[in-house]
Specification:
278 residues, alpha+beta, N-terminal domain of MutM-like DNA repair proteins, Helicase, Ruva Protein, domain 3, 2 domains, five-stranded antiparallel beta sheet, 11 strands, 21% strand, elongated
Length: 278
């Protein structure tokens, strides 16, 4: 799965550069990335339409589309799933490139240059009437493009849920709190690193059962989650978290210096400070 900050980066690029441009052609020939659609099916549904909005819930992203001709009836939603390493590349009519999505690392050539050298890594593309394009660059071929993606099974986005609803959703049941944060049907968008960063900021042991958390604990957790998520978006990814660089053998808590503890919680490798997270 992609991480929420990377998906938000891609969504923001689409919103800023691709909306309102008429679609003249579609390359949906990659039968794996575009499954279950047959080649040409997505193109037939989209040619002549415009992208009208770029939306995200958790790690899922999709675009609304317009009607065709004089029709005001909206078209299908276009789901763009980045996989673990996908990026969205948008060029304007003059060929100027804007891109967003998976963090490439410092000193790494932009995905646009990589796509030009290795066009096979472009798994899907829209060609706009003005000559520009929107491309899904996906080396690992783990992304997905589909019409009208199903998002109703997801819980509310982590940045949209209010504290009262958060306490109700997260505090229900007997699961470890980290497992509950990772459950996308409860909250959409929390991944492994973001969960560890949030719990460390909130000072809560990831193994604690949610029924042991009182309203103050849950309110503190809600604040920490919003703060950690917004910081990750602003800085370019969850790898920028304060405790994330210390998640490893020999790592120490950046606040108190205690050696970090490790266990499997919710099926994921989990690191926490055994002194401050109680």
């Amino acid at each position: 799965m992609p991480k929420l900050p990377e998906v938000e980066s891609a969504r923001a690029v689409v919103e800023a550069t691709a909306l309102g441009r008429r679609i003249a052609d579609v390359d949906d020939s990659d039968t794996w990335e575009c499954r279950p659609h047959a080649p040409g099916e997505i193109g037939e549904a989209l040619v002549g339409r415009r992208l009208t909005a770029a939306r995200r819930r958790g790690k899922s992203m999709w675009c609304d589309t317009s009607g065709t001709g004089r029709s005001a009836t909206p078209g299908p939603a276009l789901g763009l799933h980045l996989g673990m390493s996908g990026r969205i590349l948008v060029t304007d009519a003059d060929g100027r490139l804007t891109e967003g999505g998976d963090y490439l690392g410092r000193g790494v050539a932009g995905a646009g240059r990589q796509a030009d050298r290795n066009p096979v890594w472009v798994r899907f593309a829209l060609v706009f009437e003005d000559g520009g394009t929107l491309r899904l660059f996906d080396k690992r071929r783990l992304g997905r493009v589909r019409l009208d993606p199903e998002v109703d099974a997801l819980g509310p986005d982590v940045l949209d849920v209010r504290v009262g609803e958060f306490r109700e959703l997260v505090g229900r049941g007997r699961a470890p709190v980290k497992a509950r944060l990772l459950d996308q049907s409860v909250l959409a968008g929390v991944g492994n690193l973001l969960a560890d960063e949030t719990l460390w900021q909130a000072g809560i042991d990831p193994r604690r059962r949610v029924d042991e958390l009182d309203d103050d604990d849950l309110s503190r957790l809600h604040r920490a989650l919003r703060r950690a998520t917004r910081a990750a978006i602003a800085r370019g990814g969850v790898h920028t978290g304060e405790v994330v660089p210390h998640r490893g053998r020999g790592g120490h808590c950046p606040r108190c210096g205690a050696e970090m503890a490790c266990a499997t919680v919710g099926g994921r490798t989990t690191w926490w400070c055994p002194v401050e997270q109680v």
